[in-house]
Amino acid sequence: MHPDDCKSYSRDAAPVIYESKGEMVYPLSQHIGKPAKAIVQVGDYVLAGQKIAEADGYVSAPVHSSCSGTVKAIEKRKTVMGNLGDCVIVDNDGKFHEIDGFGEKIDYKKLSREEIINKIREAGVVGMGGASFPTPVKLEPKNPDGIAYIIVNGAECEPYITCDDRLMRNHAKEIITGLEMLLYIFPKARGVILIEDNKPEAIEAMRRALKVKYENENGENNKKIKILPVPKKYPQGGERAIVKVVSGKDTKLSQLPAEAGCIVDNAATVYAMYQAVCESTPLIKRIVTVTGTAVKNPVNLIVRSGTSCRELLDAAGGIKQGVNIKKAICGGPMMGIAMNGVDAPIQKGNGALVFLSQDEALQSVENLTACIRCGRCNMACPMGLTPQMMGVAAERKDYERYEKKLYGLECIQCGSCTWVCPAKRPLMQLFKDAKAAILNARRA
Q1: What's the CA gap between 40 and 73, in Å, rounded?
Q2: Percent helix / strand / coil, the chain, rounded to 5
Q3: Model confidence pLDDT, tens digit, residues 47-72
Q4: Would you list the DSSP string of 356-377?
Q5: Does 218 have pLDDT greater than 60?
Q6: CB of 149 closer than 8 Å to CB of 194
Q7: What is the DSSP letter of 144?
Q8: Residue 232 φ/ψ, nearest 5 degrees
Q9: CA angle in degrees (0–180, nearest 5) for 382-161-1
């Protein structure tokens, strides 16, 4: 797929620090898996970097305060997903006092493999490309010696989003060091940094940083790392697509990348791992792109987690004069979540807020027709599924057929089928609803 990347709005906006002003809201579920468990009480004074919720299981992640202030409530608040979730609310005092040891420099080579993974776990690092899968789980595959590639996903193929592009331009050295650290704990692997070719500045920054490190240190790990530019296409950033490009292997349905000898992490995730281990800094900040056709001054902001989306919109100059927001999206227009308000907090995996002056999805619904059986959705599906048949099963609520016969849960919800459909069928929304219904039934 080749949708307009729309990155020109914010690609030239260098990241700037935004210091939160209002109360900070920390959802206990900012990751795939079991929500974290609060370990603070109302009235407690907390510091930036302090753990306020601990992981409550193997597939879980702790949550840290990104500001200093007093815990004013532990209650349900609206999240960017639109649902109500348990949250710790901190009255930000604006001083951002930090815990002892915050930012302390550490040489990862003096640590054991287990110590490195534990530091990443304690820092609350999760996948920052949107999936928010707890990163330490990826670093403990069943067969560590079978890992042949550590892949840094710098594709950022989703339209509008430029946070990873700017991160790679500004922090190439740190990302390289983070990758070297991963190669240190997987010594038989090689490192690959995959970047789409519509980010020439990021590619050059990475090449320059790698060359400098190689010349200065002549380390063995540097010889094992390569920068891999790839043609711009969507969804280039999907794990299976990346594994295929780098290793040449097709992963089977339900097969994890580790089973194909690969570990894939987003560029921002690798940077967060570097900070967690080498700079003793938990995951409390990230770059967030605030952009779209309705935004006055699209920006890339260095944001503390828990900050209100409304604050970030205001920091981007608000909405253009004479323009109304027709759609607000957390994430990009292909895989993002439509928001019903801007008072939700930014979470670890949220890399962008997109505000549009036109709602093309609504326009598509107005032009909706019956399926014409053209098969374009089947050809567009990067997973090799049959969206046309899945759509019929989802509409009929035939979830057994959807899951067992059509492998509907393998859908990565990339939106390619919806994008190409000439009948304007809302396929991805049907698949999201079907997946939610199946998983809710399992939990029940």
Answers
A1: 10
A2: 35, 20, 45
A3: 999 999 999 999 999 999 999 999 99
A4: ESS-HHHHHHHT--------HH
A5: no
A6: no
A7: G
A8: -70, 125
A9: 25
What is the b/e burial string over 289-318, where b = at least 16 CB atoms within 10 angstroms of the residue's CB?
A: bbbbbbbeebbbbbbbbbbbbebbbebbee
The sign one gets for the Cα dihedral 333, 336, 342, 348 is negative
How far lies 266's CA from each of 95, 158, 348, in Å? Answer: 31, 13, 13
Give per-residue burial for 382-402: e unless 16+ CB within 10 Å, then b. Answer: bbebbbbbbbbbbeeeebeeb
CA torsion 52-57-60-62 (nearest 10°) is 20
In whole angstroms, give the CA distance from residue 208 to residue 216: 12
Residue 372 is predicted with a pLDDT of: 92
Between CA 188 and CA 143 the distance in angstroms is 12
Selection from 371, 342, 372 nearest residue 354 by Cα = 342
pTM for the model stands at 0.94
Distances (CA, A) of 201 to 167, 184, 206, 269: 11, 28, 9, 20
* Closest listed residue to residue 71, CA positions, set 58, 56, 89, 83: 89
- 366 C-beta neighbours (distance < 10 Å), count: 7
| pLDDT digits 0-9 by tens, 109-134 | 999 999 999 999 999 999 998 788 99
| Strand arrangement, sheet containing 225-230 | 225-230, 190-196, 149-154, 262-266
d(Cα 263, Cα 141) in Å, to the nearest integer? 9
Strands 190-196 and 225-230: parallel
Bridge-based pairing of strands 262-266 and 285-291 is unpaired
| E strand residue ranges, 118-252 | 149-154, 190-196, 225-230
Token readout for 424 is: 């304007």
* Residue 7 DSSP class: G
- Residue 434, classified by CB atoms within 10 Å of its CB into exposed (0-12), middle (13-18) or buried (19+), is buried
Four-CA torsion 416, 417, 418, 419, nearest 10 degrees:
50
Cα gap 186→147, rounded to integer Å? 7
**E-state strands within 294-435:** 299-304, 327-330, 337-339, 352-356
Q: What crossing angle do the helices spanning 172-185 and 267-278 adopt, rounded to 10°? A: 80
> Do the Cβ atoms of 377 and 419 come closer than 8 Å?
no
Indicate the pLDDT class of residue 186, thresholds 50, 70 and 90: very high
Specify the residue for token string 């302090």: 50
